[in-house]
Request: fold
Amino acid sequence: MTQRPTLLSVTDLRVGFPDGPKGRETLHAVRDVSFDLAEGEVLALVGESGAGKSLTARVLLGMAPPAARTSGSVRFRGRELLGASRSGYAGLWGRHVAFVPQDALSVLSPVHTVGDQLAAAVRSVRRTGRAEARAAAVAALDRVGIADAARRAGAYPHEFSGGMRQRAVIAMAMINEPDLVVADEPTTALDPDVQEQVLGLLASLRETTGAALLLVTHDLDVVARHADRVLVLYAGETAEHGPVERVLGRPRAPYTAGLLASLPPGEPTGSRLLPVINGSPPTLREASSSPGCAFAPRCPLAADPCRTRRPTPSEVDAGHLVSCHRLTDVPDVPTCLFQPGGNG
Ligand SMILES: Nc1ncnc2c1ncn2[C@@H]1O[C@H](COP(=O)(O)OP(=O)(O)OP(=O)(O)O)[C@@H](O)[C@H]1O
Reply:
């Protein structure tokens, strides 16, 4: 198989927020995260709430919170984006990179019709007449399965159901055939059956256009069905990273095993996770001040080095990275480290 060219390259990304007197201290929410995304590839970012998934995704889009302090490197086709001004992103947004948020209303304007917003997206990157842009908008709504698209294009976002709005946002993201789509929990706000339809739609449009996808999710079932590779984040750091079939088939980081053990067997996507990992993730301050592995207080395998030294990612297989001092002691069926109701 020929290797696809790298589209996005993230190296040693750190994102922190000011803390302490006069904000002189920085508490990091994302620490030393590195990954590449090839053209047409789907990479999922997973982890519990607060793991740093959204921040990582937003930094790539130039949408970090104003207070955020960032370092490292984010290159899109070799061009450095970290620290670029809004105008540095201007040629990328919409044309090469598109965003699908969790909440459609955060990107759709309430005062313009859906069709006008889609047509404006077309005209922001291509010189076309109004009629042509309008026709492209209607065709895009039709492609995402909105019935009677020509009439519906004249409706306002609040006249759409939640599922239709998310379809419209996907239509808007894909209308200029971007190279990269960043989707941040794109279906979390929807009913389970609509979630599945919307994810299927995103997957089929992505396949048709050949776009790469960075998918932020907390749902391992979604990862298994839609991603090529997965990066598991814990307290802002890489716990495990690699091809989906390896990471989910034979996890080598106790944290990934705990996430997998939390999945109720046979339950539909989006179902509540079983509480198998004791305790909760550290606060930013706890994670910043601990010298050891951030997962150690919850890990059934934690031993001395885990409490005193931070593990760094090591390659256990081609392209499969794990940050764990105890990785050689992780059993063949690692989910047995965790029992429903909480380990330890
Ligand atoms: N503007 C901000 N100021 C201070 N801390 C922030 C800010 N934005 C995010 N954080 C902190 O950064 C950490 C990571 O947040 P992030 O939103 O990336 O988590 P997440 O993994 O996407 O979680 P969720 O699944 O709940 O969205 C959290 O502890 C959060 O409180």
About this structure: The two ends are 45 Å apart (CA to CA). DSSP finds twelve helices and twelve strands in the chain. The chain has a mean pLDDT of 90.
